[in-house]
Amino acid sequence: MPHPPAPHEFAPYYGRYIGLVPSGDIIELLETQMPTTLAFLGAVGEERSGQPAAPGKWSLKEVIGHMADAERVFSYRALRIGRGDMTPLPGFEQDDYVRAGRFNERSLESLAEELADVRRASVRLFAGLPAEGWSQLGTASGFPVSPNALAYIVAGHELHHLALARTQFA
Predict the structure, then answer these.
(1) How far apart are CA 20 and CA 164, in angstroms?
(2) What whole-number distance in Å separates Cα of residue 67 and Cα of residue 157?
(3) Which helix (H) or strand (E) holds 71?
(4) For residues 168 and 52, is the Cβ–Cβ distance under 8 A?
(5) SS3 11
(6) Total Cβ atoms within 10 A of residue 101
(7) Which long-range contacts does 107-114 make (Cβ < 8 Å, 24+ apart)?
(8) Are 67 and 157 within 8 A, CB to CB?
(9) Which residues pair with 52 in a beta bridge?
(10) Helix, strand, coil percentages, rounded to 5, for the chain
(11) What CA–CA distance (Å, rounded) separates 121 from 127?
(12) Which of 17, 57, 105, 151 would bridge 52 by S-S if both were Cys, CB 3.0 to 4.6 A apart?
């Protein structure tokens, strides 16, 4: 069952996200954190969301597209590993995904709706994992990872990007 992941359950890089997750029920956090993100996006608005905060940085639309893409990848990893598939899973290059996503051509509203839809699917996946699925260890990007850690990574990744967005776009 879900618990704060031990260091052997994830690559050290992901500790930066997991460390942001408050104590408590991870499924409940995954269900309740999205309204805060959506409210922030609504406050920023369409006009500013397509402009990068600084040269070489992503726009808010690109950040939201990245968050949805990354959550899909993390959830897919959790699905595979949680169902007992021990095939090593590759990494993904986030900058390539953002470029190919062409998120600035879409409305902020459509990106926000997509992010919320992805989160609903992630919550259903994690809520439906059997107890033994949470603790399975698989491999992603060359490192061990568990569905348990991936749930925390999903939550922490959102918290990380929301905190950055608040400083760059507020």
Answers:
(1) 13
(2) 8
(3) helix 60-82
(4) no
(5) coil
(6) 18
(7) 107/46, 108/41, 108/44, 108/45, 108/46, 108/49, 108/50, 108/60, 108/61, 108/64, 109/46, 111/61, 111/64, 111/65, 111/68, 112/38, 112/41, 112/42, 112/64, 114/68
(8) yes
(9) 59
(10) 65, 5, 30
(11) 10
(12) 57
Buried b vs exposed e over 30-68: b needs ≥16 C-beta within 10 Å? bbebbeebbebbeebeeeebbebbeeeebbbbbbbbbbb
92 contacts: CB under 8 Å, gap ≥ 6 = 69, 73
pLDDT at 93 over 90: yes
Report yes or no on whether pTM surpasses 0.70. Answer: yes
**Average pLDDT along the chain:** 96
Supply 101's token pair.
């996503």
All residues at 6 or more sequence positions from 126 whose CB lies less than 8 Å from its CB, including other chains = 2, 26, 27, 30, 75, 78, 147, 151
What DSSP designation does 9 have? G
> Which domains, from first to last, does the chain contain?
8-169 (1.20.120.450)
